[in-house]
Amino acid sequence: MADEKELFQKIEILQNLLVEFSTNGDADSEEYEKLRKELCANPLIKDKLPDFLTTQRTLKQFWQFIKGKFSTYADRRKYLWEEFGKVLSYLETHTTTPAEAMVSAKLIELNQGYIHFEWDKALKRRAEDPEAAITSARTLVETVCKYILDSLKIEYDDGLELPKLYRLTAQQLNLAPEQHHEAIFKQILGGCQTVVEGLGALRNKLSDAHGKSITQVKPSSRHAELAVNLAGSMSIFLLETFKAIPSK
Question: What is the pLDDT of residues 64-78, one digit of tens each?
Answer without folding.
Answer: 999 999 999 999 999
